Amino acid sequence: MKAVLFLVFGLLAVANGKIFTRCDLAQKLKASGMDGYKGYSLANWVCMAKWESDYNTAATHKNPHGSTDYGIFQINSRWWCNDFKTSRAKNGCGINCNQLLTDNIDVAIKCAKLMVSHPKGMAAWVAWRNHCRGGDLRQYTAGCGV
Q1: Mean pLDDT for the stretch of residues 70-89
Q2: pLDDT class for 15, splitting at 50, 70, 90?
Q3: In this structure, which of 6, 57, 109, 129 has its CB flanked by the most CB atoms within 10 Å?
Q4: Which stretches within 32-105 are classed as H helix?
Q5: In the chain, where does DSSP find H-type helix?
Q6: Per-residue pLDDT tens for 38-75?
Q7: Largest CA distance in the chain
Q8: What is the β-pairing status of strands 75-76 and 68-70?
């Protein structure tokens, strides 16, 4: 019985994702090579995640045109992942969108690296354009030891 309960609660924890603290996310992104990746500082990545998902790996947002944004970086199902619901999906990262909703953000980081490598760079994220681009972003990594 204990094993069954452990399995059920373990699956629920994965399904619920994780809400990172600002500094935990900064440290994870730094360790994953995001600081300076394609010319974007670590503070840009942390700022973008703040405004896209409030650091929540389980965040989703349904868009008016029928696609959905998933995870900490709000990766879109029309272009970057497959949610098996979005018509004419491209799946540029070659992943299932549900992989973006867990507490392990390695898949999300790999996909974000691919996304930022395209011509728009971080401007692909509306929240980054509206809240982070060109601003003083020091607050997003201050006191985090990164």
Answers
A1: 94
A2: low
A3: 57
A4: 42-53
A5: 2-16, 22-31, 42-53, 106-116, 126-131
A6: 999 999 999 999 999 999 999 999 999 999 999 999 99
A7: 55
A8: antiparallel
pLDDT tens-digit readout, 89-141:
899 999 999 999 999 999 999 999 999 999 999 999 999 999 999 999 999 99
Cα separation, 97 vs 53, in Å, equals 15
Tokens representing 67 are 């696609």
Q: Could you tell me which residues are beta bridge partners of residue 60?
A: 70
Q: Which of 13, 72, 15, 50 is nearest to 141 (CA)?
A: 50
Residue-level pLDDT at 6: 39
pTM over 0.90: no
- CA atoms lying within 13 Å on the CB side of residue 5: 2
Neighbours of 14 (CB within 10 A): 14
Phi-psi region of 62 (alpha: psi -120 to 50; beta: other; left: phi over 0): beta
Neighbouring C-alpha atoms within 13 Å toward the C-beta of 116: 20
Separation CA 82–CA 70 (nearest Å): 10
